[in-house]
Amino acid sequence: MTKSDVIRDIEVKVIELPLKKQWKIALYAAKTRPHAVVRIRTENGVVGYGEVSPSPAFMGETGYTAELAINKYLAQAIRGADIYDLETIHAKMNSAIYGNYAAKSAVDIAIHDCIGKTLGVPVYKLLGGAARKSAELSWVVGMQDVEGSIAEAKHYVGLGYKVIKIKVGISPEQDYRVVKGIREALGDAVALRLDANQGYDFRTAVEVFSRIEQFNLESIEQPVRRWDIEGMKYVRSRLKTPIMADESVSSLHEVMTVIREQAADLVNLKVGKVGGLHIAKKIAAALEIAGMTATAGSNLEVGIGSAASVHFVLSADNLSVPHDMMIGGPLHEYDLITSGLTVTNGMVSCSEAPGLGVEVDDTAIFDKAGR
């Protein structure tokens, strides 16, 4: 270790970003989102950025709790650490405070950005290199009326998206009407993925989705509560449609329960949910060993967090299911980056610049951050 490679400063700011319209899922509805942005500086002046935007109903964290956890526990635990010692850094963070995986994710992403910039390589090369040059995206239609849902789905299909994910899980009849309307409007060429966000108990889930399966679904995401692994397994055994776990896989150890119990067919793996890039790669490897594929989802992160997910997807072969990791930017009134990610015809690629490869609007975040 050289002096230049150690962590000198760790800063975190929370900035509330307005959404263009209300974002509603089975767990909550919101018009703004608090994003926690981390800035890490090494002794030689290299600056790395991380970002998370967890919702309390979804993860038990917010941008504000992440700020507290980082300032009070994580920063002092890892200040002075060698940026390359990721295993040690994660061990120190876990010793400092249990859980708080979003806060740890923001720190982990910023460290990866520092490493890439120090070595002069993009982050995906730190994660194993390119398994693919670009990644296919899916779009997520939040809860709204049927007409609005159809119009939004049509818009993104027009932009080249071939997979539309529909938020369901509150009203069986509304779920049926929305899925029926979108399927009839789009035809059979577009894949439809449903996401219940834990909205139903296992018996209701089977009843609801048995009726909706006629619309040729790609998958059904998290139909039951995160802790109800037996319930998810029950749903999987009684439906033809593949079942995707999301909230049930919020850490490295939780994925092993889903694998062991054969409770899901695939997983929505979110970098900002599980502890960062270092941990996400371990989970992807566990899924690969089990013969399972995954998609990378979004907690509505904007540019910095989305870039981390893109680098992750480019580096992992079994991250082969179209991803909704890029929805945060378009859903917000403005972003925290000025360049670095390119979306064309429903596909995303990243810059070959060092680190995350994004240009961060640093002044707007750390000099003008407000709540």
Percent helix, as a range, is 40-55%
Shape descriptor: globular
In the CATH scheme, the class of the largest domain would be: Alpha Beta
Give me the Rg, rounded.
20 Å
- The CATH superfamily of the largest domain is Enolase-like C-terminal domain
> Helix-strand pattern, N to C?
EEEHHHHHEEHEHEHEHEHEHHEHHEEEEH
Count, helices = 15
User: Within the CATH hierarchy, at the fold level, what is the topology of the largest domain?
Assistant: TIM Barrel
Describe the SSE topology.
Layout lengths: L6 E18 L4 E14 L4 E6 L3 H4 L3 H16 L7 H11 L4 H19 L3 H4 L8 E2 L2 E3 L4 H13 L4 E5 L4 H15 L4 E5 L6 H11 L4 E5 L7 H10 L4 E3 L6 H10 L4 E3 L2 H4 L2 H13 L3 E3 L7 H13 L12 H4 L5 E3 L1 E4 L2 E4 L8 E2 L1 H5 L5
Parallel strand pairs: 5-6, 6-7, 7-8, 8-9, 9-10, 10-11
Antiparallel strand pairs: 1-2, 2-3, 4-14, 12-15, 13-14
